[in-house]
Amino acid sequence: MTIITILGFLLIIIGLWGMLTRKHLFRMILGFSIIDTGIHLIIVSLGYIKGRTAPIFDSDLSTFDAVHKIVDPIPSALVLTAIVIGLAVTALMLVYVVQMKRQKGSLDISDYEELKW
Amino acid sequence: MILTIIIVLGILMLVAAFLALYLKDLLSAIIAAGAISLMASVIYIILAAPDVAMTEAAIGSGLTTIVFLYALHLVKKEQGEKND
Amino acid sequence: MLIAGAIISLVGAIFLFLGALGVLRMPDLYNRMQAGTKATTLGSILFMLGLGLGYYNQICICKIILLLLFVIFTNPISSHALARAGHFFGIRLIKRSVLDALHDAEKESEL
Amino acid sequence: MIKRFFSLFFVILLIFVFMPLVKDIKPLSELGVTSQKYAKDGAKELGAANLVTSVVVTYRGLDTLGEVTVLFITTAGIGFLLRKRSTGKNKKRKASEILKSGTSFLLPLIVLFGVYIFTHGHLTPGGGFQGGVVIASAIVLLLLSDINLHTDHNILNWLESLSGGFYIILGLLGLLLAGGFLDNRFLPLGKFGEIFSAGAIPIIYSLIGLKVGAELVGIISKLGREE
């Protein structure tokens, strides 16, 4: 569905804007998780076909005419693993933020100026 | 009908994304970011992907929020009584 | 059967709406939490019962009873934990309220 | 201020780059070639009713292996960053009686629900990842209710390594006895639609569920235990 694709792109742009302009470290990670959600929405919406059902065989869906009745299973499978990885990476980033706070005592990105140019 | 649901959910998601970036209170911002995932899981049901919907509802709005809250707790404990 | 189920679900939906209205309109945290818990518990119970009556078959009824048990057990526990955390966090009651049993009990145990 | 203009410029550039992509996306009307093959032969070949499960576990099993590896590495990184620091124990509020008794009633039910989700992954929506997450949320409830609990990290480590190792061993058995790495057909396929069917898929998905659950519990208990 195209409208959901557009929604996913809007979420990506909002998240990127947040990551670029906000100064607080937690806000940047929140922007990252918004980008994550947007990407997942786009990938799942690319596999949708109008008027079809989920790829699970039961009494209503036989294996013979499945080709004309189910949506694409591959994007679902890819997103399934991507969500779990997203959680793990978010947790790792948060732990880094906690360590940075312990080292320097600040949560503002403009206080970290070792690599500033 | 389904198009209306999708449009309403989409507008709510965009509003929640802006709230997550611009609310003053960090706790409310984290809750808003969890709400985005919750609405996304409803959209996955509409897109006929129940597996993804289950995962997103459990991870995106459950565990991610909990991990954020634990990290916020740790950071605030470092800070002492000063508030932010 | 379908009509009876529809009526029961409608009543449940009205309760859910009242719960949402209560969350918006009530004055302080504890009142809001009470509206958001009591009304939505009853509302979701009625809604699911109506659904089960409307599409009556045995597997459906069994699943709905399990769901109801889960809602009945989890909803009060979670709101209890939230209200208790709010109390110890230091959120005040509204001025007009007359009774704070947890505060009184704490004072008694200190004495 | 310069920086803000720079970010605005960057975001607008991104919009212009992606605009043609969004405009040219047409909704699918037919499945792609690979998906058509999966839809036609997947149920007959592997015997799993849930096509997403057979894609995740068998057809793209190497992806899942890599994903589990990434999860393991992030868990190890978190454990490394949050090494034990010797600070004094601070006092915590005790959990209330209602929460404790409610937890003792609800915890087995939630764990049972998680196990149900990952053993029925080949029949109904759900599977290892979802079941592992449900088990991890049960452990969160335990952490919230009984604050002085110490999750035994040795048990967690053993559980994680054993399930990971058995996952690889099952993959190698598929390589030896059947068509290729992580092929599930070295066990009999059984009757379509029953719980003991689909060859090794339920076993592999249960192992993935145990591994994911152990890793997520490790992350959360490390974050929650830190003082």
Question: In brief, what are we looking at here?
Answer:
The complex is a heterotetramer of chains A (117), B (84), C (111) and D (227). With 117 residues, chain A is mainly alpha-helical.
Task: Describe, in plain words, how this protein is organized in 3D.
The complex is a heterotetramer of chains A (117), B (84), C (111) and D (227). By secondary structure, chain A is an all-alpha fold. Chain A has a single domain (2-49, 69-111), classed as Orthogonal Bundle (Helix Hairpins), CATH 1.10.287.3510. Chain A contains 3 helices and no strands. The mean pLDDT of chain A is 83. Chain B has one domain (2-79). Helices cover 86% and strands 0% of the residues of chain B. In chain B, α1 (2-22) packs antiparallel against α2 (26-46). Chain B is flat and about 50 Å long. Helix content of chain C is 83%, strand content 0%. Chain C is elongated, with a radius of gyration of 18 Å. Helix content of chain D is 70%, strand content 0%. In chain D, α5 packs antiparallel against α6 and α6 runs parallel beside α8. The two termini of chain D are 39 Å apart. The chains are: A mainly alpha (117), B mainly alpha (84), C mainly alpha (111), D mainly alpha (227).
For the termini of chain D, the CA-CA separation is 39 Å
Distance between the termini of chain C: 60 Å
- Silhouette of chain D: globular
Oligomer: heterotetramer
Number of domains of chain D: 1
**Stretches with pLDDT under 50, minimum 5 residues of chain D:** none
Count of alpha/pi helices of chain D: 8
Rg of chain D (C-alpha, Å): 23 Å
Uncertain parts of chain C: none
Structural class of chain D: mainly alpha
Structural classification of chain C? mainly alpha
Q: What number of structural domains do the residues of chain C give? A: 1
Helix content of chain C: over 70%
Mind sketching the topology for me?
The complex is a heterotetramer of chains A (117), B (84), C (111) and D (227).
Chain A: H1 2-21, H2 25-46, H3 73-104
Helix pairs in contact in A: 1-2, 2-3
Chain B: H1 2-22, H2 26-46, H3 50-79
Chain C: H1 2-25, H2 29-54, H3 58-89, H4 101-110
Helix pairs in contact in C: 1-2, 2-3
Name some characteristics of this structure.
A: 117 residues; mainly alpha; D: 227 residues; globular
